[in-house]
Write a structure and sequence with these properties.
The two termini are 35 Å apart. It contains 4 helices and 9 strands. The relative contact order is 0.24. It has a 7-stranded antiparallel beta sheet. It has a two-stranded antiparallel ribbon with strand order 3-6. It is globular.
Length: 151
């Protein structure tokens, strides 16, 4: 199974505690797909919103395709997310009742189709962020020591 990662939302992993992940399809126009293949996309400050019973990717920036003519897309338009009904109900219910948020973690191509990995998240407090930074630094130091002892 070939997966080509286009972009990742590193800020989301830093700012939020990830509770559950979902894989979803994206409804895109042709020039957006070409821009994705050129990795001209940013997920910074993007999130998932609901309109009726449908989910949309909001705030994602996909650059205009430079070789396209006047038939280009709007870089910040709403993009429909494709999930099955049970997943939509689960995400929407968690957002309404438990106060969770839903953010995109990464966009990638899988078997030629554009996919987005979204996650139900809960915001981290300042102390939680510091704790995760400490864990990351400790793990990095351990890996360095292991590499030095092997050589």
């Amino acid at each position: 199974m070939s997966i080509k990662i286009v972009t990742e939302n590193k800020k989301a992993r830093h700012d939020y505690e990830i509770l559950e992940k979902f894989e979803a399809g994206l409804v895109l126009v042709g020039s957006e797909v070409k821009s994705l293949r050129g990795q001209q996309v940013s997920l910074k400050d993007s999130y998932i919103s609901f309109r009726g019973e449908e989910a949309f990717l909001q705030g994602a920036y996909i650059s205009e395709y430079k070789q396209s003519s006047h038939f280009n897309h709007d870089p910040e338009r709403l993009r429909k997310i494709l999930l099955n009904k049970e997943e939509l109900k689960k995400i929407y219910g968690s957002m309404r009742e438990k106060g969770y948020s839903c953010v995109p973690l990464k966009i990638y191509f899988k078997k030629g189709k554009a996919k987005v990995e979204i996650a139900l998240v809960r915001g981290k407090q300042k102390g939680d962020k510091r704790e995760s930074i400490k864990k990351r630094d400790v793990n990095r130091d351990l890996q360095r020591q292991i590499r030095r002892s092997k050589s």
